[in-house]
Queue: 4 jobs
Job 1
Amino acid sequence: MDLNQKQLEILKIAEKLFAKNGFEGTSVRDIALAANINVAMINYYFESKENLLETIVKQGAEAYKLIPDTYIHEEDPLLRLERIIEHYISSNLANRYVYEILANENTIQKRIINSQIYTELRKHNIQLIKEVIEYGCEKGVFRYYDPILIHTTMIGTLMNFKRNRIIFEELLTLPPGCDFEEYLHETLTTHLKFTLKSILKNENQ
């Protein structure tokens, strides 16, 4: 679906409201007010609030998909793993509200298509992680470890920080001018690389 600039602006505003207030807690009027447009324009572009949400979910799922072309050129399994982690952190922070919407939609499973999109996204990413682990095992660099647990470690680590941002901002006492999102990007990327390498690395290496 090709989207014009106004549609993209509406999507950004809607995803922020959906993430903050939930789908049920956000009205089309709320979105129109925040976007400084009339309700008719949203209906014209997206027909309904449900279609608006579906568009957000589809767009977000594509952004989170692991793409082999971003790491397949690396012969070293450790570098392939690093490229995957970098993609995950970058895509998540660049689409900061979408993953919360995806997770919420999957939890309630009220809108089947959104739940299916989220499930297919996870299957896709877990399969590619599995292939990288198997590649590392073939090279004698990795020991085999459940790709579902590796995937869960990546998701859980970042989501814990994002959902408890207020607490961590206080505990971390970041220096003045240090942006929390930038901190997450740099620090969690380094942390996940260290953690997952420690889990996967063959003890004989």
Note: The domain at 5-52 is CATH 1.10.10.60 (Arc Repressor Mutant, subunit A).
Job 2
Amino acid sequence: MNDVDYRSLAEQYGTPLYVYQGDKIESRYRLLRSCLPETFEVFYSVKCNPLLGVCQLFRELGSGIEVASLGELRMALQAGFKPGDIIFTSPGKSMEELEAAIDCGIYSINVESVEEARRINAIAMRRNALAKISVRINPNFNFSGAGMKMTGVPTQFGIDQSEMAEAMDEILSLPYVSLIGIHVFSGTQMLNADLIVRNLAEVMKLAVELSEAHDLALQFLDLGGGFGVPYFQREQELDTDKLRLGLSELWEQYGEKLRGVRIGVESGRFLLAESGVFLTKVLYVKDCKGAKYVVCDGGSNQHASSAFLGRYVRNNFPMRLHGKDGEETEEANVVGSLCTPTDVIGQKVRLAKAEAGDLLVVEKSGAYGLTHSPVLFLSHALPAEIMIYRDEVHVLRERGKAEDCLHGQRSLLTGRSVRDEYVYSI
């Protein structure tokens, strides 16, 4: 993305600013599809980046979609996804969310407990409907090499494999629930292709064994996702050639047993991370007790992942000063404008000598960026989010305003909504 004129974009749309490349998203989607057996499907994980325009692009590419809240469900429908291409995964779905999912007739609600299946059955009974569900399992194995494991350990996700026999018997007895599938999500930030294939082999084996043991006509197998991207130098890129070969051999082994089963993988970070950058302007440069600080107009409230507030990245995002490639570097801490010492989006990074007015580019920021961040802290306006796609610039989210922090609030003195009163503007 070094050939993009970030300076002109920053001047036109202001900073901080998120910039995504739609062509890169498209190429990453096609790369992942090329790694999968032909009949497999990709479900875009909305939580990664819930912009309407991003969701619309994946719909155009032929992806399904995985949602985890009522808001994300509405986003998926607004983006034009058909209910039959939507799955709903979350360890704590509310009654309102379950009702909406059933009323929409989505393809699968991935349930995390027997109690959730009972609630779905009760809702469907009141509607005289049949709700389609898949059961999420927390298996005894995890060979994924995931940066954050979600199976094989104590977790809020899924039903323990040791409890599956009893759970399956009860779920299959629920009259208003149709158990169509099995779901396993091993973890996130998986970069070892061999371990991914080994893990998925165990998932397929488990799915076949359970369906045979309980006489289940398996219709859907959600293999989860977690395909990773390297964020810092010592991490290795996921070997997609090895992944492609391993999955092909795996499918030769299980293809006949899973004939006719809809098989999906979920992906967000792999598809989005490398497509986006976070741009922030240098306001000041200062020295303090032997350390250099580059103070910017954007920080952890708008890019929490870069500040290590998320658990999946434990080192600096790659970052640079626009237009200063090749210049001699020095060690600096990159910070935002928040009144907290945790507002550090780059710790002891090597940068060219920074000056006020420089533009800092934080790479690999397309996934888990703005909406993953505590954007209400200190009431800064939201940055704009734009996409460059097929040589055109599309504004996907307009730049916010300072008064947006009052949205939804009511006056203590009058009881009226702030929107109905005069809002002071500067």
Note: The first helix runs from residue 6 to 13.
Job 3
Amino acid sequence: MEVIHAIQRRRTGRPLSFNRDTALEEAMLAFWRHGYETTSIADLTSAMGITAPSLYAAFGDKKRLFLEAMRRYAGDPLEMERQLAAAPTARDAARDMLVAAATAFTGELTPRGCLLASATASGSEASADVRSAVSAVRRRIAADLMDRIDQDIAVGILPVSTNAAALSDLILAVVQGMSVLARDNLPRERLLALADQAMSAWPSQSPMRDASA
């Protein structure tokens, strides 16, 4: 037993023979391109340029690799909160979100569409926990935007009748729809035009705010 433990300790302490960040980036792109279910370990090791044992040693398994890749894709949630807080209004924040989506979903060096949308397209029970993790990211974004909308309602920028939850859900729904259209090769300019059209549903500035201006 001590011999086994000694071997395990040596394996654990062995330095990686590849750049972990680079490998994670390639895994993220593979999941982004093919989705979670249809991306095999062979696909991942080929994209990452490593062996299956190295993948398991560095990332655990396919699910944990995906979750780490998803966090890399989604970015720091605190940064999202800072961006929303820094926007002049919730409307500006929402439009920035749509423009960023249209741009990211049609990048020349990345797969088309959204990793979060493509990852769970198959919807099998085997990926229930993966779907739950992806849904949690979307719920967090919607909640952050809803909080920013509530702030504008509180200070009179938006009418008190504004449904903050429905408005934030609308923006997230448009983002997800843009992902589907991007994967259908809709050009960026069409997605940007869609973003402008979607923003026409945004409530007008509060009349009280206009009167006080």
Note: Confidence is low (pLDDT under 50) at residues 1-13.
Job 4
Amino acid sequence: MRASLPIAFLLSTTLTACAAFKAEIPPSKHISQSGPLKVHPGLLGKPVPAELQPGSSLPATNPAPLATSPTPEAPIKMDPVGLRTQRSVYFDLNSAAIKADYDPALRAHANYLAEHPKARVRIEGNADERGSAAYNHQLGLKRAENVRATLASHGARKKQISIKTLGASNPKKTGHDEESWAENRRSDVVYERED
């Protein structure tokens, strides 16, 4: 019985140290993954992109990453009226919730519509290829409805905004990986008539 006391003490000390160490590590955004296994390029001896390097962040003034791959995490680039550079709203997996990052762009579109009563937009809701056709159709519809509601709450007239769901039928990027799926989980603001 006495021999188990040092082992219990050692185990207790180790668990306490592990718990304290774990609290210092920030939680990962990428806990699970579906599809084929993805390996960090550094483990394969390849150069590691800046966005994957720990502790690094891309400067907000660098337009190159925005032009090549607009993602939900990328900062939104706005032109003076905020209309032509940001016409897509990106969503998380299985979500139709609009992130606060997209509010400035949607507010700019709503302001334009409020100031130009003859202008008309169509909101096209999209989903990635995962899920059934019926589910993706409904998810695309809900995304388009949420964008329309946000525009209306910022002053656009409801009659200026139509919605359409495309489900997974209109991919922006045709891959079978997270990068492609993230690009396809979106709603697009399509101007049918500018005033």
Note: The longest helix spans residues 4-24.
